[in-house]
Amino acid sequence: MTDARLRRGRASLALSFCAQGIAFALLVTRIPAIQDQYGISDGLLPAFLAGVPILAGVGSVTTEHLVKRVAPSVALRWVQPLVLLALLGVAAGDRMWQAAVSLAAFGLAVGGLDACMNMLGISLQRAYGRSIILGFHAAFSLGGIVGASLAWVGAHWDLSLLVSYLPVVLVLLPLCLAGSRWYVDGEAAAVAPETGTESDVAGGKPVAFRLLLPLCLVMAFAYIGDSTVSNWSAKYLQDVLGSSEQLSTVPYNVYMVTTLLGRAAGDHGVRRFGAVAVVRAGAVLASAGFAVVAVAPGPWVGMLGFTMLGFGLCVIVPQTYAAAGRLFPHASDAAIARLNVFNYVGYLFGSPLVGGIGGAWSYRGAMLIPMVLVLLTLVYARSFGAEGARYGGGHERPRTVDVG
């Protein structure tokens, strides 16, 4: 592949990640408005919200089989518009069945989208011969900040969902379709004759779940932590630490910004120190952040803990995808699609887990659960170890080309 083609592929995929961040943030930050528009009761709302990650998992599994017949770039080219159109469908309806259909379509499509984007990201990383996957996830974080800001504008000016979503979709849809012309599909990893690293790990055999399981657990733990921040940070700051309602909205914004900053710098850390060291540091920092939140005497110390969480958790998920791609270099698409399911497992169980413990015992005690789970990542850190032989510890060995 030429340097120019790889650069275009990298830029177009970063746009895809960013667009997905915008779309996802617009959905999750306007849930109260969606509930009001469709008259969804408080008792029924959890069923609607749980359906999205469940169907996303189905979409991810379906994508594993789809990419056996068409290239991931082709699947991504068509599934991203489906996500945007489903988002518009959520905004356009007024009956409960319409909300159910649109959210179901969003869930199925977003599962395929997440899987395809990470398949292409890992194949591009292989072509570059160095860590670049964190940069794509930084684009997703940037999109999340943009989407949350647009949602705030819509809520502040009391705009309808359709008025809020339609301009965004009209801009993103043609941009993503145009950018899809430059997606780059990677090839199966070649064996490195100097080290034999990849052939020794998986040797072209089908994906074995027992080998993938440690990474699946790490993915679930990370998303339990992430969903705790997104769903409970505002309530925790206000109800437990006594902040004002306005101040309680700050932790999630701080978390998103620190996630962006951490991912923007994370690839350099992986190239310099290796994935094992970066993942271990992230797990320790995130667990320490949960500990600070749990014992915080007031809101400002609590915000310090959420800041630590952003810097710690942000590196784990992208490196988990990268590790799956290295573990099964000749079946990386299938490995990533299966691993991606545990993204939604963590998201599905994280919020109810913390909420249930918080309601039955205390929210301070509930923060210790994700703290322990994220800390368990240290047990599985060796699953990221192939990084050291290829990109980390200051011994970078580009496999194909070295482009910007």
From TrEMBL:
Places the protein is found: Cell membrane
Higher taxonomy: Bacteria, Bacillati, Actinomycetota, Actinomycetes, Kitasatosporales
Organism: Streptomyces noboritoensis
Pfam families: MFS_1
Keyword Transmembrane: yes
Superkingdom: Bacteria
Gene3D superfamilies the UniProt entry points to: MFS general substrate transporter like domains
Classification via CDD domains: MFS_MosC_like (cd17393)
Transmembrane segments: 12-31, 43-62, 99-120, 132-153, 159-178, 207-225, 273-294, 300-324, 336-355, 361-381
InterPro entries (UniProt xref): MFS, MFS_dom, MFS_trans_sf, MFS_Transporter
Keywords of this entry: Membrane, Transmembrane, Transmembrane helix
Protein name: MFS transporter
Residue ranges occupied by any Major facilitator superfamily (MFS) profile domain in the UniProt entry: 212-404
